[in-house]
Amino acid sequence: MNYQDLKTPSLLLDLARVRRNAERMSQTARDKGVRLRPHIKTHKCIEVAKIQTEGHDAAVTVSTLEEAMAFAKHGFTDITYAVPIEPGKFAEAVAFLRGGVKLNLLTDDAATMSLLDEECGRAGVRFDVFVKIDCGTHRVGVEPHTPEAIEIPRLISEAKNLTFAGILTHAGHSYNANSNEEILAVARHERDSMVELAERLRAQSIEVPTVSIGSTPTMSLVDHLDGIDEIRPGNYIFFDNFQATLGSCSFDDTALTVLTAVVHKNAAHRKLVVDAGAIALSKDRGPIGLDPGCGYGRVLDTDGNDTGMRVTGMSQEHGEIQAGDAAAFDTLNVGDRLRILANHSCLTAAQHSHYNVLDNGNIVDRWEIHRGW
Q: What is the number of other CB atoms lying within 10 angstroms of the CB of residue 37?
């Protein structure tokens, strides 16, 4: 099937680029002697995860328990749920263990661990729990030099029904870097702060089975991973306009685009309107600090070449393209197809039900996206 015949808007997934991106990160993990546990929130797709984990042990990271359920049903039985657990999700989490799935949990809260320990005792199960460390993102987690960074691991280690799995962090602030040198500095701090904390915990006679780190920018550029056991990048499998602008990859590595149709052309204002709006692309502003004119995505032709135009405005079902001096504007008419390289592939993918898998210019498969909470 020719992809230009697809209903718009639709996701196009370049299979060759996905495989190449997967192999590159797999090789990074092998070369640096760490376990790869990719974060599948980027794609939420069984087929993509199988490509990512080929040659590894099929361990994955998820962002919702609905994702965990979908992946468990397809044979992924070693899963880290990388959002701090809260009591309202205890019963659902326990059901995974009873179903034979190893579900690792995450916390930064001592009181919640006391409640979880009690719940596990009543249910007759035992969870492996990571303590989330804040290495600079300041979203969730305990800072590595605070008393809590020692006290919570000790509480879990001494609990009757919990096992301390180790420490885990995510350098999300690497997305705010302005150069490869800045990304590398964040990567080194992410690594070194976690290794130092692990050493402090061990000095307190607290065993640290796993030190887990990793964002796509930091894992794309880190120089070594001595003292690290596991990495959990996710976006690398698709990349996007943000990552390519940031320098984590080249634009030739970006694997996901949105096929869209021109529905309006205004020659007087040199404006195009396409049928991919916020619901098809998301409203992520992307690398605005590096590229103030990035808009909501790069406009590509149907062969994937940059037209020089950007999606400059957006409503629910409409994407506006202010062409400026872009030569491509004059060649386009209502009904013509374009491809949008979105700013954030994770959010864009989550807007759709499936991928149209593109190989050598043809649609060769349709892969489901497992959404929901």
A: 30
Q: Residue 64: its pLDDT value, please?
A: 98
List Cβ neighbours of 203 (8 Å cut-off, separation of 6 or more): none
**pLDDT range class, residue 67, cuts 50, 70, 90:** very high
Q: For residue 171, is pLDDT > 80?
A: yes
Matching CATH number, 3-10+250-368, of 3.40.190.150, 2.40.37.20, 3.40.50.410, 1.10.760.10: 2.40.37.20
- Tell me, yes or no, if the pTM score tops 0.70: yes
Contact 248, 174 (CB under 8 A): no
Where along the chain do the CATH 3.20.20.10 domains lie?
15-237
State the Cα–Cα distance between residues 261 and 338, nearest whole angstrom.
Answer: 6
For residue 131, name the pLDDT band (cuts at 50, 70, 90): very high
Distance of CA 169 to the CA centre of its chain: 14
Q: How many CA atoms lie within 13 A of 317 on its CB side?
A: 3
- CATH number attached to the domain at 15-237: 3.20.20.10
Burial profile 112-121: b = 16 or more Cβ within 10 angstroms, e = fewer: bbeebbebbe
Domain with CATH 2.40.37.20 in the chain: 3-10+250-368
User: Given the structure tokens 């096929």, which residue do they identify?
Assistant: 259
- For residue 97, give Cα distances in angstroms to 68, 115, 125, 360: 12, 17, 7, 42
**Half-sphere exposure at residue 93, Cβ-oriented, CA atoms within 13 angstroms:** 28
pLDDT-derived band at 277 (thresholds 50, 70, 90) equals very high
Average pLDDT over residues 282-289: 90
List own/partner pairs for 117-125 with CB under 8 A and 24 or more apart.
Answer: 117/159, 117/160, 117/161, 117/162, 119/87, 119/90, 119/94, 120/94, 120/161, 120/162, 121/160, 121/161, 123/94, 123/98, 125/94, 125/97, 125/98, 125/161
How many of the other CB atoms lie within 10 Å of CB of 74? Answer: 12
pLDDT at 250: 96
pLDDT in tens, 334-345: 999 999 999 999
